[in-house]
Design brief:
Number of strands: 17
Strand content: 15-25%
Radius of gyration: 27 Å
Distance between the termini: 32 Å
Helix content: 25-40%
Strand order of the largest sheet: 6-9-10-15-14-13-12-11
Number of helices: 15
Shape: elongated
């Protein structure tokens, strides 16, 4: 059915003034008065509704249309005219309205305001609210910006496996993949997996990094952008069991090269959303985070700080602050520590580099001191860590030592070790959680509200 998108009308009202148009959408508001009826129509392409003004004396089925409920799906034909209402530039005078989908009295979105908790119980309908209308358009623009950034810098977009036999992080927090039925009778774990589909233990990927490294050793610069899964026993506002992740890997790059790339990428994608989603950002600033736009401008315009982990610990130990988690060299920095550094000390994004090897992953490059690794976390004001990066260990013997010392199964990583035998080269990469950066850009406080159908502990909508 040929029709005009409402967003196009508001982009250039003069182009459509006086024209006969067909628009489609859902009624967000229906208001009836003695002589005139009003319908605010939204088709999902714009946060702004198009007002339909019905002259009840001249419009044949006005009463039938105006007795419909909010949420009804309509096809409206009419003429676009200038509006007398100073709050809107145009309105549509209808010549015909067809209700193609009625909305009964139990439609749950008839009120103007609903709690986020309630909306999580109806994920199939919540995209019709202004919050999620804005969220999912920003999500779309952010994804576009990520692809544009890497494609414009000679990166190859690759797709790494979703089903894998290895745990990239070595933490064991993976979802198992099996074809066995619940009551399958096997006496040992070895027998169980030997009779499974892949003849070995398999799970959903926690990261595409390891496979990404293999492709970077052939293509030079690659990035992945896809779903990852973690079976963390966590029910916080920042954790999800299924989330999307951006993971570039760059051959012949050290830690400072990858810091530069991460800085450029973050500034680029934030600026893209800032420039292309002004209406949506204004909405989130009004209802969710005061000062949101200034926060984003701070990301775009700031020079990011770079400090040593040891220096960060010294600052925190001297801080006149009663932290819930004590600070000492060798501890993993908590969100309260990270926010103290960004919000109080530096007031801008901060890269903390060279963490103790014992609190970081096995694949990170060992520094000459033997105690730290060439790793960094990017901390941003208001949130804390948003990017984790490192130079990867390219020495076969040192990598093998880390695998063994952590009790990992060497056979699971033979192919990964072989990358260090055949033309090994320095290389680096990072991971950015897509939903985490969406939380930061929109000011939304719960990761469940950045995905259409969130998967979290105990919740599978």
């Amino acid at each position: 059915m040929k029709h005009t998108d409402i967003c196009d009308i508001f982009k250039d009202c003069s182009k459509y003034l006086g024209n006969e148009l067909t628009v489609c959408g859902w009624a967000k508001l229906i208001r009836d008065s003695k002589n005139v009826g009003f319908i605010e129509l939204n088709d999902g392409t714009s946060l702004t509704n198009l007002q339909i003004v019905i002259d009840k004396e001249s419009f044949e089925n006005a009463d039938d249309v105006l007795r419909q409920n909010v949420g009804a799906a309509m096809i409206v034909k009419g003429t676009l005219i200038e509006s007398l209402n100073p709050k809107q530039p145009v309105e549509l005078t209808p010549s015909g309205i067809e209700v193609v989908g009625v909305s009964p009295n139990d439609y749950p979105l008839q009120k103007k305001k609903h709690s986020m908790e309630f909306l999580r119980t109806i994920p199939h309908l919540r995209a019709r609210t202004n919050t999620f209308n804005a969220m999912f358009r920003i999500r779309s623009e952010l994804a576009k910006a990520i692809h544009d950034f890497f494609q414009g810098r000679n990166f190859t977009y690759v797709h790494t496996p979703i089903i894998t036999g290895s745990d990239c992080e070595g933490a064991g927090e993976i979802f198992r993949v099996t074809t066995h039925e619940y009551s399958t009778p096997y006496e040992t774990e070895e027998e169980y997996y030997a009779n499974d589909f892949f003849k070995q233990k398999a799970g959903l990927t926690v990261s595409g990094q390891l496979e990404g490294e293999a492709l970077a050793m052939a293509l030079g610069k690659i990035y992945t952008f896809g779903p990852t899964f973690r079976a963390e026993n966590s029910n916080t506002t920042r954790h999800a069991a299924e989330f999307w992740q951006i993971e570039p890997e760059v051959a012949f790059a050290d830690l400072f090269d990858i810091i530069e790339l991460a800085t450029d990428m973050l500034k680029y994608i934030v600026k893209h959303v800032y420039d292309n989603c002004p209406e949506e950002l204004s909405f989130f600033e009004r209802f969710y985070e005061k000062g949101l736009k200034d926060k984003l401008l701070n990301i775009i315009n700031s020079d990011f700080a770079v400090i040593e982990y040891t220096e960060a610990v010294d600052i925190l130990m001297k801080a006149d602050c009663d932290f819930a988690y004590p600070v000492s060299w060798g501890c993993d920095l908590q969100t309260e520590h990270e926010r103290y550094l960004t919000d109080i000390v530096y007031k801008r994004p901060v890269f903390v580099i060279n963490y103790p090897k014992d609190i970081k992953s096995f694949y990170m490059k060992l520094n000459p001191d033997g105690k730290t690794v060439a790793a960094t976390d990017l901390l941003v004001p208001g949130v804390g860590e948003i990017i984790g990066a490192s130079q990867r260990e390219d020495n076969y013997d040192l990598l093998l030592e880390q695998i063994k010392s952590r009790g990992m199964t060497q056979s699971d990583y033979e192919w990964y070790l072989e990358l260090r035998k055949f033309g090994s080269a320095p290389h680096s990469g990072y991971g950015l959680g897509f939903e985490r950066i969406l939380m930061y850009i929109t000011g939304i406080g719960n990761i469940r509200d950045t995905a259409a159908f969130p998967r979290t502990k105990g919740f599978l909508a």
